[in-house]
Amino acid sequence: xxxxxxxxxxxxxxxxxxxxxxxxxxxxxxxxxxxxxxxxxxxxxxxxxxxxxxxxxxxxxxxxxxxxxxxxxxxxxxxxxxxxxxxxxxxxxxxxxxxxxxxxxxxxxxxxxxxxxxxxxxxxxxxxxxxxxxxxxxxxxxxxxxxxxxxxxxxxxxxxxxxxxxxxxxxxxxxxxxxxxxxxxxxxxxxxxxxxxxxx
Length: 200
Known about the structure:
Elements: H1 4-11, H2 24-30, E1 37-41, H3 47-54, E2 58-63, H4 66-78, E3 84-87, E4 100-106, H5 114-125, E5 126-137, H6 141-144, H7 158-162, E6 169-182, E7 185-197
Parallel strand pairs: 1-2, 1-4, 2-3, 4-5
Antiparallel strand pairs: 5-7, 6-7
Helix pairs in contact: 1-4
């Protein structure tokens, strides 16, 4: 179950919980896309949303933690870019569907049926010709990789994500590895990247 108070408490410190740099897979997958309107669902402290704005995207960052959204606004101001921010739950349907050229869902780790609800909302937000990009800790990371959630219920496979993307054409759905520096030396995390496009 999502716990807004717990996430607000986690984000409350002055330091960023996550890095201010964008996710490497987001950078790689978005690089060839022409900037347009982007929605970052479950944007957290805004690292990907701010990077997108720096690339010329008109960005809306949505998260259910008002503390995280406050930090996203501060990060945008510090980096001299503008983003629109919304405090809302990614599992609640957006009021204005099919408006975004890019919808990003990065590391939103939810159990079913919340995962399906969030992905359904993400799909609904994609405009004709637009792209949906999902990046997350993969189910195989639990036993084969480093870090990430240690709860199998909030981990999925690329195929499980792709199965919820009705109406989109899946262009990529695969696992990827990511190096992680730890006090005990470098480790490998296993994520997945799913990219899909709405025809039109």
